[in-house]
C-alpha cells in the first residue's frame, strides 16, 4: 500500500478553555466555520498583514490541532504562547498523530484550499507519501516557510482570498486592517506564482531543480512562465488587479 504521511508537516495541539475564541482573535479565517469534517486554511500575520505562518486548522473535540510546516512548528508554538498571556490554554506538539494525504479516493476531508489538491486526514504515522509536492505545485498552490517566507509576503499576495484562507466577515485579527483594505481597494499588485524554471532567478523564493519549477514573487502583470490554474486566472484580469 502506498504511503500517505506528509513527513514535512507537524501538528500542534491547543487545548483548554475557550481555545476557539483565543484563535478567533489571531488567525485570518473564521473559527465558527471549523467542523470535524471541515478543516480551514488560515494564516497568522504581522500587524502589517504579512504572513508569518500558514497552517490548516482541525477540530478535535474541544481541542484544535494545527497542521503546519514542520520547520516552522517550534516558532509557531512559541508565537501562540506569547499571545496566550494568562489564558488557561495548553500549547504543545502532538506526537501521536501525523498528517496524511491521498491524491484521490480514500477517507479524509477535501483540502480546504482546493478540492483538486486531494484528501487530507490525521492519524497514526506511517510510510511517507510520494507525489505531494509535484501535485501541489502543478496546481499553483504555495505553502510553508520556504515559499511564503516569514514577514515577506502580504497574505492576499499568497492567494489567500482565492484559496479560502481569509474571512472578510469575521471580527478583528492580527493584520486584519491592511488585509481588508487591500481587498476593498483591489490592490493586490504582486502574487506568489509557481513558475517553470531551470535555475533560480532574482525573484525566486525557492527552486525545485528536480521538478524544474520555482516559487516566485511577481507582479500580476508580469507572470512570465507561471502556472496559471483555473482558480487563479480570474484574479489576474485587469479589473481585479
* Major sheet: arrangement of strands: 2-3-4-1-5
Helix fraction, binned, reads: 10-25%
Individual helix count: 5
Mean pLDDT over the full residue set: 95
* Radius of gyration based on Cα positions: 17 Å
Distance between the termini: 45 Å
Share in β-strands: 25-35%
Order of helices and strands: EHEEEHEEEEHHHEEE
Q: Would you identify the regions where 5 or more consecutive residues have pLDDT less than 50?
A: none
What does the largest sheet look like?
A: 5 strands, antiparallel
Total beta strands: 11
Q: Please state the overall shape, judged from the principal axes of the Cα atoms.
A: globular
Structural class by sheet pairing and helices: alpha+beta
Structure description:
- This protein has 241 residues and is α+β, with helices and mostly antiparallel strands.
- It has 5 helices and 11 strands, in the order βαβββαββββαααβββ.
- The chain has helices at 19-24, 73-84, 132-138, 144-148, 176-185, and strands at 9-16, 40-45, 51-60, 63-69, 89-93, 98-102, 109-110, 119-123, 190-196, 204-208, 213-219.
- The protein has a 5-stranded antiparallel β-sheet. A 3-stranded antiparallel β-sheet has the order 6-8-7, with no helix packed on it. It has a 3-stranded antiparallel β-sheet with strand order 9-11-10.
- A hairpin with a 4-residue loop joins strand 10 (204-208) and strand 11.
Amino acid at each position: 500500500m502506498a504511503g500517505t504521511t506528509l513527513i514535512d508537516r507537524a501538528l500542534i495541539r491547543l487545548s483548554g478553555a475557550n481555545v476557539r475564541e483565543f484563535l478567533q482573535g489571531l488567525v485570518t479565517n473564521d473559527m465558527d466555520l471549523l467542523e470535524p469534517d471541515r478543516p480551514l486554511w488560515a494564516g497568522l500575520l504581522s500587524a502589517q498583514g504579512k504572513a508569518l505562518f500558514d497552517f490548516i486548522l482541525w477540530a478535535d473535540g474541544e481541542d484544535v490541532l494545527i497542521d503546519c510546516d514542520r520547520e516552522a512548528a517550534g516558532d509557531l508554538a512559541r508565537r501562540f504562547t506569547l499571545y496566550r498571556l494568562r489564558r488557561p490554554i495548553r500549547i504543545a506538539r502532538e506526537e501521536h498523530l501525523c498528517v496524511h494525504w491521498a491524491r484521490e479516493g480514500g477517507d479524509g476531508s477535501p483540502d480546504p484550499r482546493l478540492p483538486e489538491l486531494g484528501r487530507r486526514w490525521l492519524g497514526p504515522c506511517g510510510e511517507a507519501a510520494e507525489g505531494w509536492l509535484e501535485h501541489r505545485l502543478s496546481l499553483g498552490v504555495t505553502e510553508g516557510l520556504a515559499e511564503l517566507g516569514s514577514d515577506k509576503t502580504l497574505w492576499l499576495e499568497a492567494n489567500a482570498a482565492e484559496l479560502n484562507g481569509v474571512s472578510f466577515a469575521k471580527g478583528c485579527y492580527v493584520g486584519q486592517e491592511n488585509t481588508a483594505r487591500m481587498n476593498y481597494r483591489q490592490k493586490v499588485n504582486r502574487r506568489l506564482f509557481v513558475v517553470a524554471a531551470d535555475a533560480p532567478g532574482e525573484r525566486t523564493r525557492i527552486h525545485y531543480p528536480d521538478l524544474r519549477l520555482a516559487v516566485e514573487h511577481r507582479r500580476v502583470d508580469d507572470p512570465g512562465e507561471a502556472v496559471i490554474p483555473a482558480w487563479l486566472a480570474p484574479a489576474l484580469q485587469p479589473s481585479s488587479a
